[in-house]
Write a structure and sequence with these properties.
With 91 residues, the chain is of the alpha/beta class. Helices cover 40% and strands 10% of the residues. The protein has helices at 16-33, 59-72, 82-85; strands at 6-8, 37-40, 77-78. Strands 1-2-3 form a 3-stranded parallel β-sheet. The relative contact order is 0.20.
């Protein structure tokens, strides 16, 4: 493959601040390497080993956090599976 597309980001959204730091670093890497990078982060990580593990901020808050990142730093953010977004306006 000549110019692979990289998909990168945190496994799960922990905070808006960390999301911003990671997105800005990926933009820096994108510019430095001249590669297309798709920013990806989960708002609900359900596949945890414990029912008590942190799963993320949930769909409403998580989507808002991703939209904020998209507006501030990133031209594309992966919002997850389309079924999770059905009925959401603007997505």
């Amino acid at each position: 493959m000549k110019n692979p597309i990289l998909i990168a980001g945190p496994c799960v959204i922990e905070s808006a601040e960390l999301l911003d730091v990671i997105a800005r670093e990926l933009v820096r890497i994108n510019v430095a390497l001249n590669r297309q990078i798709i920013f990806k982060a989960s708002f609900d990580k359900a596949n945890r080993t414990s029912l008590h593990s942190f799963r993320g901020p949930g769909i409403s808050r998580g989507l808002q956090m991703l939209a904020d990142i998209k507006e501030k730093v990133w031209p594309y953010a992966d919002y997850g599976h389309p079924r999770k977004l059905s009925g959401r306006t603007g997505w």
